[in-house]
Amino acid sequence: MTGLISAEWLKLHSVRSTRIVAAVIAASIAGGAALTWYVASMWDKMSPADREHLSISSVEELTLSVNQLCFAVLGILAMTGEYRTGLIRSTFAATPARGKVLAAKAIVLGVCALVVGTATSLLTYAVCDAIIGERPIRFYDQPVDLTALLTAGPSTLMFALIGLGLGTALRSSAGAIAAVVALWYVLPIVAMNLPSPWDNRIGAVLLTRLDPQLAGVDLAAKYGADGMPGLLLSPAGAAAVMAAYTLAALIPATLSLRRDTR
């Protein structure tokens, strides 16, 4: 298994898609820093009365969204890329136990997603906090909620494994990416337009709402807005739902590999 993991690591860091993902994530950190600098410069030029209406939410939420999508796509391409190029035949010839191939890809992708997701969140906060300094800008997190920052890692991990599962089961990059976008963007919009209380109840178990609940963050209390979702799941409940999403993607992927005749 160690050799298989080494092979999957070699594949991952040698393909162009990994370098593109790294560049996009780096650009998101730079973009978050630029946005923070812009808001801080506006703050310095405003009167005390105008400053009460200026706000900036956690920039880490922006970089987390980028990480989630990037690693979901990377997970998809980790399998569909091999099918597209025909390399999958060599992979299965070298390792007939196809479940081990999927497990090795999941381990490599999962570790990378966990490390990069956590590091990006911490780095984004460190850079933006240095820019904001002592400015008491509304909604900006001071002092830092370390638990909320650290949930970026498990959330990114979940998206990476969901992408891997969808890519394996569907064997189509376009179809799997469309499915991820539906889960990440379309379903939350649908849930938001449901009548109360179902908008909040269903929305609580959707992918993009799990990381704040994993950290125990009540968005309604944090932002003081009636339209914001409340905290419905405990951290343990959110972790269980994240695990369920991951298994729901990987189990069909495993069954699909066993039926594959290549």
TrEMBL record:
Keyword Membrane: yes
The UniProt record lists the keyword Glycoprotein: no
Pfam families xrefs: ABC2_membrane_4 (PF12730)
Transmembrane feature ranges: 20-40, 62-81, 102-126, 146-166, 173-191, 236-257
UniProt entry keywords in alphabetical sequence: Membrane, Transmembrane, Transmembrane helix
Organism domain of life: Bacteria
Protein's name in the database: ABC-type transport system involved in multi-copper enzyme maturation permease subunit
Record organism: Phytomonospora endophytica
Origin organism lineage: Bacteria, Bacillati, Actinomycetota, Actinomycetes, Micromonosporales
